[in-house]
Amino acid sequence: MSLDAAAVQQRIEAKFPGKITSAELEVTDPFLVIDNAAIVEVGTFLRDEPELAFDMLHCHSAVDYLELKEPEKARIEVVLHLTSLKHRHWIVLKVMLPRDNPKTPTLENIWPTANWHEREAYDLFGIEFEGHSDLRRIFLPEDWAGHPLRKDWEWPDEWHGIAVKPDEKFSQRAMEGENIGVGPFD
Amino acid sequence: MGLKRPDLETKISNLLSPLVVAGAGGALVLIALVPQLAALIREQLQANLSPTAAAVAASAIGVGATVFLVGQLPVFLIWFERKVAAHIQDRLGPMRVGWHGVLQSFADGIKLVFKEDIIVNGADRFLFKLAPFLVLMGAFSAFAVLPWHTGLVVSDLNIGLLYVVAITSLGSIGLLMAGWASNNKYALYGGMRSAAQMVSYEIPTAIVILSVVVQVGSLNLQDVISAQLGGFGNFANWHIFRLYGLNVIGFVLFFICGLAETNRSPFDIPEAESELVAGFHTEYSGIRFGLFFLAEYGAMFFVAGLTVVLYLGGWSGPFFEGPLVFFIKTLALVFVQMWLRWTLPRLRVDQLMALCWKYVIPFAFLVLLVAALASAGAS
Amino acid sequence: MERLDTISSLQYFVPEIVLVFTLMAVLVCDLVSKNRAPRERRLLIVIPSLIGLVVALSYSLQGSEAVSAGLFHNMVAFDGFGQMLRVIFIVTSIFVLLFTLHSNELRLVHHGELLVLLLTVTVALIWMANSINLLMIYLALETVSVASYVMVGYLKTDRLSNEASLKYILFGAVSTGTMLFGLSLLYGLTGSLDLFEIRSALSSQEVVASSGPALMVILVLVLAGIGFKMATVPFHFWCPDVYTGAPTPVTAFLSVGPKVAGFAVLIRFFYGGLASPSEDGASWAMVGSVDWQTMLMGISVITMTLGNVGALLQTNMKRLLAYSSIAHAGYIMMGAVVLSGEGIQAMLAYMIIYLFMNLGAFLVVIVVHNDVGSFDIKDYAGIWRRAPLLTIGMGILLFSLMGIPPFAGFLAKWYIFSVVIDAGLGWFAVIGGLNSAIGAFYYLKILKTMFIDGSDTPEPSTPLALQPLYAGLLLVLIVPNIIGLLLWGYLDRVTEFSQKLLDAM
Amino acid sequence: METLGPQIIFWAFAALMLGSAFIVVHGKNLVRSAFSLLATFFSAAVFYVMLGADFLAGVQLLVYVGGILTLLVFGVMLTNRIYNLNLETQTFQVLPGALVSLAVFVILTTVVVRTPWSQSALIEDGPTTPIIGRALMTEYVLPFEIASVLLLVALLGAAMLVRRRTDL
Amino acid sequence: MKEYFADLFAAVTSIAKGMGITLAHLFTKNETQQYLSEENPGARWQSVIVPEGLLQDRSRMRLHVKIEDCIGCKQCEKVCPVDCIDITTEKREKTDAPIFAADGTAVKQKVVQFDIDMSLCCYCSLCVYPCPTECIVMTPEYEFAETVKSEFLYRFAKETPAPPEPPKKETSDPVAAGGS
Amino acid sequence: MISLEHYLIVAAALFSLGLYGVLTRKNAINVLMSIELIFNSANINLIAFSRFVSGDTEGQVFALFVIVIAACEAAVALAIIMSLYRILKDVSLDEASVLKG
Amino acid sequence: MSSQTQYKDLEPDEAYAFKPEDLEPDEMILNMGPQHPSTHGVLRIELKTDGEIVKDAQPHIGYLHRNFEKHAENIDYQGVIPFTDRMDYVGSMNNSLTYAVAVEKLMEIEVNERVQSIRVITSELQRIASHLLALGTYGMDIGAFTPFLHSFREREKILDLFEWLCGARLLYNYNWIGGLSHDLPNQWTDRAKIFLDQFEPVIDELDNLLSYNKIFTKRTADVGIIPPERAVGYALTGPNLRGSGIKWDIRKEDPYCGYEKYEFDVPVGQGRYGPIGSCWDRYYVRVEEMRQSVRITRQAIEQMPAEGDVRETVPKRVKPKPGEAYGRTEAPRGELGFYVVSDGGLIPYRVKGRSPCFVAMSIFREIAKGEMIADMIAIIGSLDIVLGEIDR
């Protein structure tokens, strides 16, 4: 008994009126935008309600909208792709966060898989997940500067003496006579 | 296009490989003729020297010959194992150095000798250097009692089998030492595992050996073989065919214990490369690593040889007898060891112990019990 | 003494065999009952061990009259002395087994193991007390030691217990190693391991002439091992620590079993190997060229003095009892120096009475600890108001330990002092008497704490929790102390048995 | 020649034994102490061989080297974590201890030298295994059985003590 | 007890089965080939599945530029995901003689630099498709290991026409080459 | 010729070294090793006497039992040390000092 | 620009999750990886061990992190495909297919049937190759070296087919947005059929050599058990989820490339040698999947239209209208998804790769506790991770 996005929206509205701030049902992947404060309750409801039973959070992404032209629309979206193995339907939820100091409650108590996904989002976007059990960087070194997937992130010059910025092209360096050797014979 | 083949190496290997093949053939002939040679040498010595000096010289020659043979064997066995492994896996194996790679082990040996000998920081340098020799000593000194033919043994100890069980424990101390001295946790784990494994498998080994000792009534390896001589076709008296077929179980158990004592697959947990990187020799390189290798293959050959002595009649055989028969039987068992290694996965530590305590030891006791009853009934 | 071979020895060996089979049975019971409820499991373990002990006890009480034999090719002796000791060990073991059942200290997780160890120590004590071969002495002594090391360390999460065990094993191993070295030299001197052959070798004139220093060294070395078991000075260091750290039932056992066995070995070794009996068998004369009598006398004096003086300073009950047991070892040793059958009888009597009073005292310690949770003497304050009967019982036990006349302890001391005086060592008895007087101080201190201290606190007192089993045991242990005089009849039996010992030697 | 060989062996192994024993008792590094016990045990085994006790030599190697030493090394390694490599143990009472043991040595040596040991018999060199085996089954059958009880109890006790804390 | 022996039986049979398989393989034909041997001189992999000679038809190994065909459109430079192509062009003077690529396209730009850094190349072959004159191609040549990283800089732009094969740079000295 | 006294003196030296270790070492395992030295010295004595004095294998049998006992004692001692180590995280004898005699 | 160097200097032990001073006396920290023979790449696992028992395990990833997603924000849509190839470098065909499917969904492109069939054939062959690698290395982790080379022998044949098809052996860049880079060569399907015919008995041989081997089952059957509800909670997909007994396969649930046309079964873990969801179950699901892949490939070859232009629907320039799409396929390691956001430009605004291995690795800590060190290897191997995909 699969449900489409509209049906899901209806059920959430019935339970938590006003918590869906907007919804887009006509696009390729219909999505619902949930109020940041209510995401934990909505998530728990979505997982536990037998009709919905979204037991798998199969994708958790974040998108940074810099929106240079309209700064008031600048935001970070957290996008949750939920699937129900039981009913074989799926839904996309979004949470809008401010670009500066984005904070959202953690979902790891609802879907344990969110643990690492949220660490990833923290690492690459700087979103702070409140109540997360182990919010550390996951890919980058602990002391990396900034969050690279932010649109306004800039390369640091170096990291512990290692040049990390994309240098001028290798061919130019080679042309300037630098012997960029590898291996034991240099 | 394409790279030029290295000419000099080709020439050298073309030159040397016939020599090596011929040498191997010559060695086989030599092994076959060893009893006659030994008699000849003994005669000469006794004629020309005082009795004490003759005895000393004879044992020196025996030690020298054994050390030479045992030193060369691993070189051959390593090549042999690589070829067996390769063909089991549908590969070619070493092909470059010499005819079908017969010189590969020599090349590797030369490489190991000239490789930089790295001792890691924080290692206990003295013990680090000592350990390979201890392991090698444990493996090679056992050969002293391995009889090749009547009277053809370096040291004819009357506690031969006890000596064998005792001296192999030197190896486990060496492995522990290597593991500890490396200042590496993986090495430590490897050393610990090997010691635990060797200590627990010494029990069934001793029991199985005891079952043979009970049947023979002697700890001397010569006596063990002479008890198996004669009979139909000169092989019906082999221990493996006796004791109502229960000795087959004993044979299998001893073979299993031998695998475990030499840390061979499927009991190679001390150097389990997928778990412990390389176990106790993780930090070893160069010739010290080579010594571990020599010790492993020496121990393999020795365990196979001991199995032949205990169960397969030593040098006796249906048509021929002598050192060559012994050598070929042993090689066959070594092949089985290799064959097993390239077939089976590795056991886990607790399963290894469970196998020892739940399966091997009860059956070993069964064999011992029956052997004791049978020999009590006979006497 | 008749030398028996293996098969004919077995009939005299029934209690030991019963005990060995019991311990194996308990081990198996423990293993098969792994998954049962704790209570059921405990029954499965305790009942077979009790049955085994009782059967062994009944066999040893029967005794085969008028036989004195060297069993198993002169490995262990079978005689009256040995049978008496058998009874002592088995009775101690039964008491201690019952002590373990309700002690709060033992959490009874590895109860099966504990009982197996207890049974092993019991049977090994019997072997030790009866050994007449150097190899047997050493082997049995080590068996007792190894098992009791583990028993001391039974509380493996408890730091004190572990430390006590470590101390015990290190001291024990060193002193037994030293003893072993001495034994090896003795073997070299005489060429034999058999005590009687050693005696005859030492009696020969040439050895006596030449082996003085060697024998002296040997005796010093050997005394290290025996002294360790008896806890006599200077091998007593472990004693207070181990007694304090070990679980109290184990302490009670250690204070009786190994100590008694140590004295038995002392008698077997010195009387059997280093002295020759007179014609009538009532006294002995030393062989060899070393005056070991003086040596033992010195040890005895120092031991009792140090034990009593040490006990004066203690605030911990177990520690105090440990020092008290050291002092008692000194008293018992007085019987060993007189070189007569009387002396041995007095020792035996002392040991039997000591069994009752010491076990009783430790049982009170267990009972108090179960309720109060402390071994500190301070915490015994006000026991009188909470459990008057228990306090009175403790009073009786302490008076008995002191050696105050109506109680059995007096009897034991009187007997041993009179034997010493008879042997013409009056000054020795005087030292013993002085020591008893010192001892009275600390026993009285405990009594004072129990009766007087804390009685003026206004709080209403709750009665002390006393398990019925322990109450019964306490009764059984106290009664012989009161009716000590009645024991005279039993002491005759002791005399009778020890007469056989004299025959044997 | 006939006497020189044994003498060389004796003195060499006596030196090895005492030297390694000195490292055992006075070494700074605990693991090295444990491993130098190997040399001590090994030279003791050599002595046994020289004394005609070949079976005992085998047992010495088997039990001491294969069992006790392995156990000791295990103990050292388990109680000293590998990243805590500083195994140096402070010694105390070195001087009194040295004096006492020196005194003991002097006394023992004097006694040993002065005492006329009755060197009556020399056993024949030959396999001792059957003799010892027979002795164990006849004269020494009771010690043999007691030893088995001892082994059982030691095994049981050691296993009980080292079992995990969680089950208590 | 039954389980015990069932386990034993399963162990023995399964091990025996496995050993049978390995023994059989000991005597089957080898699947690997000797790299660079007499039987296989070109070091070409002889596939057992793919018919002989067809395997390398579309091989994407080393890049090669037929520089005389290049019209300097920089399509390949733009499409390269790893930026390993570096092209500099100069407008040809009107006065110069008209040049035509092989397919007849007029060459309007003078390619003064056409560098490919093969150490960066990801062998995706995306540069090959947009090339209007098919002058940049991937060859089946795969043995071009070097010991110095700068040797991987392939410079195709030449004042003089480059020799057709091999497309290796003339000099190993990049400074000298850069001067041209 | 190597005589009985040679062996006895070596054994005495070994015994003294063991005693020295027992008296001076703090680490429990080290003390245990010293005790093993004492046992070994006694064994050398026993075997030497067995050959030179008694002329039978009595001493060897004794030595055999000593080896067995030493093994038992080492096992139990190490078990106790391990158990204590879990509590103390250290095996030096000074640490084990709650019980002060 | 030089302002962003404000990294702080870490203490050396800050790189450890477990601190030496917190350890119990028996415990030890064992650092497994990043250079270790069986962490399948540069994975580092910190183990808190008590002897051979693992008390706790903390995986550290990121050693292979290249920030594929940042790359993707700087290259045009087509240029992303070589990067997707490098995510799961042993299943590249499926990666580029997934990305292509996602962008096609965004651009609403329908590819023709021939392209679909070829995509099915290549992705199923890739699945077989990937599983062969997974199973072979798993055998090697457990200690059997021979199955590894036997499975590599078969894998080489598939790689030969792919090289013949598109010129590369590992990183194909074969699936394009809206089509394929090359059509099938002549005889390709015949040769593929030959391969399939000889491959099926090889699976049985592998079973007898490894899967049913007593030692192997003992090593794997009681180890690393993932109960079904945990598997779902951790969003495991692919063989890892099916090993726990849950029938869930994107090819069935959300068919793409015309998978609905083919008949095949979804194998799930049966708990044949131990509890359900053990390492052996996950392993054996892969073996069964190879059989199903052979079946699918056969059908796809049969049903493939003989004619058709594989670049028929390839857009001249890939410039989707603003919007977002999540495309997913069943990759060898589970559900691979790409969440593509377009702002209407020539380069993607955001590409998020949902990698199955990343998710699978996140459950590791939970199932590793209480197992032995040797089991760590078994668990990592049975999760079949590829670090290129975890770290992206």
Q: What report would you give on this structure?
A:
The complex is a heteroheptamer. Chain C has 505 residues and is mainly alpha-helical. Chain C is built from 22 helices and 5 strands. Chain C has a 3-stranded mixed β-sheet with strand order 1-2-3. In chain C, strand 4 and strand 5 form a beta hairpin. In chain C, helix 5 packs parallel to helix 16 and helix 19 runs antiparallel to helix 20. The radius of gyration of chain C is 22 Å and the shape is globular. With 168 residues, chain D is mainly alpha-helical. Chain D is 73% helix and 0% strand. In chain D, helix 1 packs antiparallel against helix 2. About 6% of the residues of chain D have low confidence. Chain G has a 3-stranded antiparallel β-sheet with strand order 1-2-3. A 3-stranded antiparallel β-sheet of chain G has the order 6-7-8. Chains B and G meet through helix 6, helix 9 and helix 12 of B and strand 1, helix 4, helix 5, helix 7 and helix 14 of G.
Summarize the structure.
The complex is a heteroheptamer. By secondary structure, chain B is mainly alpha-helical. Chain B has twelve helices and no strands.
Provide the β-strand percentage band of chain G: 5-15%
Could you give the order of strands across the largest sheet of chain E?
2-5-7
Provide the gyration radius of chain E in Å.
26 Å
Taking pLDDT < 50 over at least 5 consecutive residues as the criterion, the unreliable ranges of chain E are 160-180
* Series of H and E elements of chain E: HEHEEEEEEH
Which structural category fits the helices and strands of chain E?
alpha+beta
**Low-pLDDT stretches of chain G:** 1-5
Numbering strands along the chain, what is their spatial order in the largest sheet of chain G? Answer: 1-2-3
Which chain pair shows the most residues in contact?
Answer: D-F, 83 and 71 residues
Helix content of chain E: 10-25%
Average of per-residue pLDDT values of chain G: 85
Secondary structure tally: strands of chain E: 7
Number of helices of chain G: 15
Tally of alpha and pi helices of chain E: 3
Q: What's the pLDDT, averaged over the residues of chain E?
A: 75
